[in-house]
Design goal:
It contains five helices and six strands; from the N terminus they run E-H-E-H-E-E-H-H-H-E-E. The protein is α/β, with parallel strands linked by helices. The chain has a domain of 93 residues: Ribosomal Protein L13p, Chain: A (Alpha-Beta Complex), CATH 3.90.1180.10. A four-stranded parallel beta sheet has the order 5-2-1-6, covered by helices on one side. A two-stranded antiparallel ribbon has the order 3-4. The protein starts with 18 loop residues before the first strand and ends in a 6-residue tail after the last strand. 20% of the residues are buried. The model has no long low-confidence stretch (mean pLDDT 91).
Length: 149
Amino acid sequence: MNILKQRTFVAKPDKSKKWYCVDASNQVLGRLSTEIANILRGKNKPSFTPHLDCGDFVVVTNAKKIRLTGKKWTDKTYYQHSGHVGGLKAQSARDVLNKHPERLIMESVKGMLPPGKLSRQVIKKLRVYADDKHAHDAQKLTPLTLRIQ
């Protein structure tokens, strides 16, 4: 008796990772972060598997030239807590941009990844720089064309 069996495709972790370069000048923060999160997870590849790290590395430059829409520069609040009683600090998006412009993109992308151990592994593949200088020329960065305006 010859019975055809269907086989389930199980992807193996991809060892060859590509490096992409994204220029954040005049890009809207949320739309840019969505594109970056998809590349970090590997959702742009046909071999995407939700429980494996099959994404690529992303280098973001010009983080201090990012855009926010509406009144988010004053209304959006970022919180940090030291762990001690009374250690909660709140900053507006404008203050965060002036002190640490990389943190806006890092927090936004981190919020778009699903929580868990895999997310903490995936976020390590994101490099964000305030200006256009970075130390990743040896990785032969591929400029990423975004689907957003």
